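Subject line: Sequence and fold of a protein, written as structure tokens
Area: Proteins and the way their chains fold up in space.
Start of record: The labelled sequence and token lines come straight after this line.
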Amino acid sequence: MSSSGGWGLMWLRKVPIHIYIAIIGGLVIALLISALMAFPLSMLPGLWGMLTPIAVTILLCLVITSVTVMRARDLFQVFSISVSERLGGRGRRMPRNGQVVVDTSVLIDGRIADISRTGFVPGSLIIPRFILNELQHVADSYDSVRRARGRRGLEMLTKLQKESDVPMDISEIDFEDVPDVDAKLVRLAKVLGCAIITNDFNLNRVAELQGVQVLNINELANALKPVVLPGEEMEVRVIQEGKEFGQGIGFLDDGTMVVVEDGRRYINNSIEVVVTRILQTAAGRMIFAHPKAE
């Protein structure tokens, strides 16, 4: 086999299946339209009656196939929505190669860029157009804090496009009858059979109640924190007073709060402590300890 033939086969293997289907669908549509136009065009006098149907067929094939290929993913998404709604949401939703729908909070948070570089995102990131619109609205806010958050989200989106190896697709699908952005996200994820990646606690709960898989960045961060067991020793710098009398507060490098009993007198000092218990809360993990005996 020639090198050009081998290169051609390799290229064909890399082309996604939905592109092949889009090409075939585009050709079928173009040929059907051409067939309808062929007879009236053949009535033109002379060579025009012979050449015009052929030229129109070629032109339609090029134009319609180009359009179906460019919009292939959105066409498949619209088809998925149509089938899902006809089934009343009861049909089995097939997974879409690990694709995840991205929430606004994730773009503003920024950790998604680091996560995507590690390879933990198995498929592509789907950015709905209505999420981009919400992000732009936040970036144009009169409130300086909200404006800074919105601009950070837009910068993170640009960073993902330029630096991430994870494919990113902009979805034009919208639900005009759904005013709430979170509700739109959940509905989009349901009809596409995708998960939602977020760090919004309320969205997390709503999506889970409706049977949508959620990838919560905060939960991932908590799960990756080092495991600490009662009785272990560690060094911590006490930086402030605790809520209870005599307590001191310190933090580990990963941000975990350490409550040191009788640690108030060690404020602004690093000391050896012994872990007594670990408390897992909705906000994260807290470690309780006491100073190591001299």
